[in-house]
Amino acid sequence: MRYILIFLLLLQFGILSPSQVIGQQRPQLPATPQDTLISGLDTVTVNTPQGDIETTIKYSARDSIQFEVDRKVVHLYGDAKINYGSISLDAAYIEIDYDSNMLTATPLTDSTGSDIGVPVFVDGSEKYAAKRISYNFKTKKGRIAEVVTQQGEGYIHGEIVKKNENNEAFIYHAKYTTCNLEHPHFYIDARRIKAIPNSKIMSGPFNLVISDIPTPVGFLFGLFPTPKSQRRASGVIVPSYGESNAQGFYLRGGGYYFAWNDYIGTRLTGDIYSLGGYNVTVDNSYRKRYAYSGNLNIQYQYFKNDEADIAASLSTNDLLSSLPPSTKTFWINWSHTPEQKPGRGRFTASVNAGSTLHQRLHYTNTTQYLSPTFNSSISYQKNITNTPFSYTAKLRQGQNSNGTMNFVLPDLSFSMSQVSISELFSDAPSTGRWYEQFTFGYGFTANNTISNVPTTRTAPSGLSTESVVGLAAAAERDTGTISLDDFGRLWRNGRRAADHSFQLGLGSYKVMKYLNFSPSVSYAESWVDRKFTYTYNPDQNQVEIDTANFGRVYRYNAGASLSTNIYGTVYVKGKRVEAIRHLLRPSISYNYTPDFGNERYGFYQTVQTGVNSDTQVPIYQTLSRFGSGASVPGRGLQSAMSFSLQNSVEMKVRSKSDSTENAFEKVSLINNLGLSGSYNFAADSLNLSTISLNMNTTLLKVINLNFSSTFDPYKISDDGIRINEYVFDINQFKLARLTNANLSLTASLNPQARRSETTAPTNLPDLQQNNNPFMPEYVDFKIPWTLNVDFTLYYAPAQTATAEDRFNKTFGVNGSVNLTEKWKVTYNANYDFTNNNISYSQVSIYRDLHCWDMSITWIPFGFQRGYNLTINARSSLLRDLKLTKRNYSSGLY
C-alpha cells in the first residue's frame, strides 16, 4: 500500500503524467497486465527509509520506465541503471519487484538477432557480466547465468553462479583463468568453484585446458589466493624439479610463505636430492614505510657425496672428483637499510658470512661462485644536531675462499667537520680578514682487529722467525672454522689501534688577481698496542725483541698549490659554427714530508742481524719498530713539485631544433685532455716521475672515447732497469718512452629510453624469488631495438730486447631486437682477439603469448654453457604454472 500512495502523490503533483509516454516504441517483451502506469522520466529516486529496503533506490532508463502499481513492479527499458547503496546494475532491461525484493536483468535482442545491453552487476569491488541476473536486495542473495567475473588477477567463467549474503560466490561448471579474453587461451576447468572476495578461490578436482585441449595436468583440489591490492596472503610455494650433476634428481624451492602482517613476510623453503642431500632456507623480508627495510636469509645445507672417491678415478666425470666429501654448511645474508632522516641515527647492516665451502656448493650465478672474498659490516652512525660532531660504531668481518677470517670488533670513530677557527673562539660576525679562512677539523678512529690466522706473532718484515728470540709460537689451527673456546687467544693476539687526524685548512687567496693560492698542512697520529725494540745477541747470532704494550706513530706534511683558468676563443662566424673555445687549467703544487726514517723519530731502528760467514762483516738492517700492522710513514725525504695541465675544447654551433636566428648550442669536442706528473727535489736520482696523459670525449653524441697512457722520461738498461738519463732528444723528436696505453670505445644506441616510474613506498616487504642466471627480471617489448658495443685495446711495448710487445684486444656487443610486437631477441657476446676465442656469449629469444611468456636462452661457451626453455603463465598468481627444460653445466645445478 505504501508504494501505491507514493505513486499517487507523484501523479497528483504532476511529476508523473501518463500522457508523456503515449506512442513510445519499446523492444518486444512479454505482455504485462493492463493495470499499468507508463512514464518517460529519465530518473526516479524513491526514499524508503523503513521496511525491507535499507537505503535509497535510484534508477533510470533511456527509453522508458513502466510502473505496475498493483503488482509493485517497475520495468526499465533501454540503458537501464539501478544504484542501491554499494550495488549497481546496468542492462538493456531491468525489472524491480518490490513485493519479492528481487532485481532481474536481461539483455534485449536487436534487429539483427544479437544481444545488446548485457547485464553488468557491481557489488562493492565485485563485478559480474552475465546473460541473466537475479538478485534479492533484502537477503543479498543472487543467481547469475552464463557469468564472467574478475577475482583479483583472475577471471571466472561460469554457467550458473549463486551469491549468498556473505558475498561469497558458488560457481557451477566453472573456468578459472588469468587470460582477459572472452575466449581464453587457457583455463583451469572445475565442476565447482567457491570464490571468497578479496581472500581466495577454492575448487574441487580440476585439470588444465590449453587452446580448448584438455591436458592431464591437474590436482584433487585447488587454492588460489586473491587478496586485495597491496596485500599478501600466506600460501604454499610449489617446488621446481630437475637433475643435478652431483646430487641426482631434486625438488627445489618448495615450502610455505607466511604473511605475518603488513611489515614482515617469511619464505620457508627446502631442497631435497635423490642422493641424500638437502637444503633448508629461511628468508625474511621486512619493510616499514618511511623508516627502514631489510632482508634476513639463513641457509643450511647438507651436501652428500659418497661417490667422490670413486669419481676421482673416472675420466668421464671430473666434477665429482673435484668436490669435497659429504659436509654440512651454512650461510647468513642480512641487509638492513634505513630511510635518511635529519637528526636521527642511522643503523645499517650488510652481513654476508658463513662456511667457506657453502658458496662453492650452493650458488646461483658465476659471480657468486668466483668471488674470492666476502665482507660484512654492522654500523650505527649519528650526526649530533646543530653541532659539527658525529660518531659511528661498527662491527666488521671479512673472509676469503681459503678460510681466512678477519674481524674488527669494534670499530669506533668520532669526528668533527671542519669549522672556522674564529667561530670556535668568538661569536662575532665575520669581518673578511684573511685569517678568518682558517678551519679546523678532527677525526678519531679506534679498532680491534683479530684473525683466525696466527699472523700477529710472526717476525717483523726483514727477519726470519728462526733468527728472532722473544716471539711466542702461535698454535696452528683449522682456518675454516672458529669456536668460542678460541676467542680468548684470538683477542690476545689481536691488534688494537687508535688513529687521530687533524684537518687544518688555511684558506684560499688570490695572487696577482688571476692566480688561486691554497696553502695546506696536515697532521695525523696513531696509537698502537705493540712496539718492538731490537737487540743483537752475538752469542746466539740472533735478534732479541723486547715488546712494549704501547707505541705512538705520527706524521705531518705541508704544501701549497697554485692554479688558474685560461680561456681562449676563436670566432669563426661560419654558416653553422659560431665560435670555438679552449679552456686551459694549469696547476702546480708543492709538498714537503720529512724523512721519518731518521732514528730521531723512533719509527725505525737499524740493528745488526747477523755476520757474513765469509768476510765476518756485520750485517745491518733497518726495521720498523711497529710491525706490519701499524700505519708507519715511509722512509726518505719528500720535497716534490707536482704539475698538471687540463684542457677542454667546445664549439658553439647554431641549433637545428630552434628556428630562431640567434639560437645556439654548445658541442663538446674534447671533454678533457690532461697531463700530470711530479718532480722530487730531495731524491738523489730519478727525480722526475712518470708522465700520465689521458683524454676522453664523445663522438657523434653516442660514442664515448677514453684514452690513457703512461710515459717514462728516463732510459732503461738492457736488463730493463731505469737509469738516471733522460730520453728527451730534440734532434730525434724523442720526448719520453711509452710504457703502456689503453684505448676504450663504447657506444650505446637506444631509440626509446625506458621510462622510469616513481611509486610511493609501502610497508609490504618484497617477496624474494629464486635467482635464475638464465631468466631476466623484466623484458620490455616496447623498445624496438638496442645496441651496445665496446672495444678495448691495451698496448705495452717491450722494454728489453728479449721481451715482446703486449697487445690485448677485446670486443663486446650486446643488445636486443624486436622482430615483431610479440617476438624479441637479445644477445651478448665478447671476443678476445689476443686468444682468438669467444670469452662469453648468450642468445635469448622471448615470445609474448598474451597471457603466457616463453623464453629460450642459449649459452654456447664458457662456465655456464647450456640452454634453458621456459613457458610460464604471466600472472604472478599462477607463477608456478610453468614448464621448464634446461641443460647447462654451471657446477652443481
UniProtKB/TrEMBL annotation:
Residues 201-714 form the LPS-assembly protein LptD central domain. Pfam families: LptD_2. InterPro entries: LptD, LptD_2. Transmembrane segments: none annotated. PANTHER family: LPS-ASSEMBLY PROTEIN, LPS-ASSEMBLY PROTEIN LPTD. This is LPS assembly protein LptD.
